[in-house]
Amino acid sequence: MDLILPDLGLLFWTGIVFCTLLFILTKFAWKPILGAVNAREQKISEALELAEKTKAEMKALQSENENLLKEARAQRDSMLKDAKNAADKLIEESKDKAKLEADKIVTAAKEAIKNEKLQAMSELKTHVAGLSLEIAEKIIRGELSSDEKQKALAEKMAEDINMN
User: Fold this and answer.
1) In this structure, are residues 153 and 143 in contact, taking their beta carbons and an 8 Å threshold?
2) Taking the complete model, does pTM exceed 0.70, yes or no?
3) Using alpha carbons only, what angle is made at residue 51 by residues 49 and 55, rounded to the nearest 5 degrees?
4) Do the Cβ atoms of 144 and 150 come closer than 8 Å?
5) Where are the chain's structural domains?
6) Would you state the torsion angle of the CA atoms of residues 97, 100, 105, 106, taken in this order, to the nearest 10 degrees?
7) How far apart are CA 4 and CA 15, in angstroms?
8) In this predicted model, what pLDDT tens digit does every residue of 29-82 receive, in sequence order?
């Protein structure tokens, strides 16, 4: 039972040693230990705040990056649209220019055909007139081959002149 119930002197000296140890620890060790714990707690708190700030900054940067990507895509689409419009306009202008050139060529060809036709008609008229004169000359020679025919023709012409 001695082990269960300690002696009064042992209790007294154990209490004094405990209080002395408690005083020494409080005076010399407790403040540095608490300071180190508090400093560590402060560092952890600052690290958590920095992590939160960094997380918020990352979200802001991510949203800014997304906005920049949207703007870049919009600019790219706008540039592509402008380029397509410019290409379409250039193609349309080229088509119009080609059509004008084709119309000029067709008009020039029609004019050349008309001139050739007039020249051919003129040549044909000249040739027909020459042939007509030759035919008329041959007919008249045939008609005027005898003296009687010449006299009859002269009288007929004289009558025609008198009638007019």
Assistant:
1) yes
2) no
3) 115
4) yes
5) 8-163
6) 140
7) 17
8) 888 888 899 999 999 999 999 999 999 999 999 999 999 999 999 999 999 999
